[in-house]
Amino acid sequence: MDKYPWWNKTQCELADKIEEFADKHLSRAAEAAYKKEFPYDLMDKVLKDKWVGTIIPEEYGGMGKEAGVTGCCIGMEGIARLGAIATSFATTCFGGAHQTAHFGNDEQKEKFLPKFAKGEIMGAVCITEPFIGSDAAGIETVAVKEGDEYILNGKKRFITNAGLADVYMVYAQTSNNPGDIKGYKHLTGFLVEKGTPGFSVEKINELIGWDGVRNGYLNLDDAPVPAANILAGEGMGWNIMISGLNFERTLGAIAGVSCIRECVRYATFSMDRRVQFNQPTKFYQANQLKVADMIGNWKMLRLLAYYIAYQIDTGGMAPLGPFLESTAAKIFITEGWRKAALDTIQIMGGDGLTRFYPIEGHLRDVKILEIGAGTNEVLRLLLYRQGVRIHADDFKAPWREMNDELQMPIPYMAVKPLPEGTEVNENTVLDVLAEYWRINPGLYISRDQLLIRLRADEESLDEALLLLEEQELAVNYRDKRGVLALSRATYKGLKKAKPNEYYQYFPEWVDRSEFF
Ligand SMILES: Cc1cc2nc3c(=O)[nH]c(=O)nc-3n(C[C@H](O)[C@H](O)[C@H](O)COP(=O)(O)OP(=O)(O)OC[C@H]3O[C@@H](n4cnc5c(N)ncnc54)[C@H](O)[C@@H]3O)c2cc1C
Predict the structure, then answer these.
(1) Which of 346, 361, 390 is the last residue of a domain?
(2) What pLDDT is stored for residue 316 in this prediction?
(3) What is the per-residue pLDDT for 317?
(4) CATH number of 425's domain
(5) Nearest CA residue ID for atom 41, ligand 1
(6) Residue 172: closest CA among 127, 215, 202, 206
(7) Which of 52, 286, 302, 401 is most buried, judging by how many CB atoms fall within 10 Å of its CB?
């Protein structure tokens, strides 16, 4: 495994250890996958080798900061080559172990973390329900307090490690107060233990991929859960969930990176050995270009994934922690992996389509990861919304002003105000709208820019904009709250503001006299 220069000695040793482990058990994992059987023997080794302990503090029997999330990702990169157990390992890490380590109180840590660290228990995370998928805040499973217990009723579905796990990180609604719902304070995170009365596995799914993985429906029927098993208090479920999802997406991303490397292995294996038209297919550039993309993606995306791990290890796991990065990693790594799997199949020709080679399985598995842990569509929406908000300063577009000599717009980082003493009235506002049209035809100017350009106060500006609107000289766009947000001149307004010549532009290389 390629090691990064910032990995410490422990992390480098973990990398060697897990590669050796994966090499050794590759055949057993493949055998189990063909039989769609869960390889308990391999899982047991992963647990007993304390890989979950990478994310658990030393005082609870884990490896602490020396390993950390980076160490866990290193483990995941190796284990991801071993099929079903990769999913079960990752799910244990982000389904109970992580949440207890970051949000648990001393008693909860004392009770669960040593068992996670020693590999005595497995975990699961239970967000999704039959009627609640992407809209995770709409969880319908209800928890009602009765004495020192909460009674849970509801159903969960698509739960990985269903039946295998000993501890289930269950999110349930503890309030239907509209204020709590609006502020995302209506959900609570419970550690529900296997054996809780009324808690049962309802169904195991037949999936297109993830051969051997246990994934299914769970039923909570008047299941009593001790109040002591609530993490971080009532109403904190959403924060815990987001933190868990950041981590889940990071581990999913690392798994994808590992699988891209497997694709390169099989693509080059085939290209080196398949001879067509009297030469190995590695000499065909069509094939080389595909592998080049795989290597490029593998390099870039692996770096992103380990950068996230580094961020978590050094900056903690605040709910919004490396949100943008882990969201981006999940999207682009799964898509990079899908492309790699498809291209490898193409490179291998008909062989790639057979179950004699593992790449067809990659295609089935990657499709699951494009949906699980948040669909890539929904994640893209989040990436857009949070990305433009968090990086508002980075993405701030320049103000543009006409350069008289060049007769071209020149960018300035800040809006340039008009000279002091410029009056704010319909005429001056219309002038700025006309000026804006000349430089950014087809675009509206923002109210913030108008305020600065005109050195205006909000009241005078709004008054002028409304007057212009009334006279059909300008059009104003109002935001959801009904506040004036964007404005532009109408054709009538442009005509009133400036003579035609003001708006005209002809490149130097044309003869103006040719035109009417
Ligand atoms: C194999 C597997 C394992 C899983 N493991 C777990 C687990 O262990 N624990 C757990 O809690 N969950 C698990 N999940 C659930 C997974 O997180 C959800 O499947 C996922 O969040 C999508 O929800 P959904 O399947 O209900 O799709 P839906 O939310 O019903 O979405 C259907 C389609 O509509 C699109 N869509 C939905 N809303 C929007 C929107 N606002 N804008 C644009 N498009 C939208 C989606 O992108 C998708 O294409 C697992 C799922 C799978 C398949």
Answers:
(1) 390
(2) 60
(3) 52
(4) 1.10.10.10
(5) 378
(6) 127
(7) 52
Question: Is 5 inside any structural domain?
Answer: yes
Cα(121)–Cα(112) distance, rounded to whole angstroms? 9
Residue 368 Cα, ligand 1 centroid: separation in angstroms?
10
Structure tokens at 412: 């300035």
* Amino acid found at 72: C
Q: Please work out whether the CB of residue 133 comes within 6 Å of at least one atom of ligand 1.
A: yes
Q: Distance from the CA of 253 to the center of ligand 1, in angstroms?
A: 17
**169 in Cβ contact with 96 (< 8 Å):** yes
107: tokens are: 């008693």
Q: Ligand 1 atom 6: the closest Cα is on which residue?
A: 159
Best mutation site among 89, 127, 158, 365 for ligand 1, i.e. most ligand atoms within 8 A of its Cβ?
158
333 and 253 housed in the same domain: yes
Q: What percent of the chain has a predicted confidence (pLDDT) above 90?
A: 96
**Least trusted range by pLDDT, from 219-223, 289-293, 476-480, 502-506:** 502-506
For 14, the domain range is 1-121
Q: Is the CB of 90 under 6 A from ligand 1?
A: no
Pocket flag, ligand 1, residue 128 (CB < 6 Å): yes
Q: What is the pLDDT of residues 183-227, one digit of tens each?
A: 999 999 999 999 999 999 999 999 999 999 999 999 999 999 999
Determine the Cα angle at 143 with ends 142 and 149, to 5°.
Answer: 160
Residue-wise pLDDT tens digits, 247-266:
999 999 999 999 999 999 99
Query: Rounded to whole angstroms, how far apart are CA atoms 188 and 510?
Result: 69
Residue 240 within any structural domain of the chain: no
pLDDT band of residue 512 (cuts 50, 70, 90) is confident
Q: Would you say 321 and 286 are in contact if contact means Cβ atoms under 8 Å apart?
A: no
Give distance in angstroms: CA of 249 to centre of ligand 1. 14
Q: How confident is the model at residue 102 (pLDDT cuts 50, 70, 90)?
A: very high
In this structure, the residue with its CA closest to atom 40 of ligand 1 is 378
Task: Examine residue 473 and state whether it is found in any structural domain, yes or no.
Answer: yes
The Cα–Cα gap between 201 and 215 comes to 10
| Model pLDDT for residues 441-479, shown as the tens digit of each residue | 999 999 999 999 999 999 999 999 999 999 999 999 999
Is residue 318's pLDDT more than 70?
Answer: no
Q: Which residues are within 8 A (CB) of 398 and not within 5 positions of it... i.e. 6 or more apart?
A: 411, 412, 413
**Number of compact structural domains in the chain:** 4
* Mean pLDDT, range 485-495, rounded to an integer: 98
Q: Are residues 220 and 309 in the same domain?
A: no
Distance 47 CA to ligand 1 centre (A): 28
**Which pLDDT score, from 0 to 100, does residue 320 have?**
64
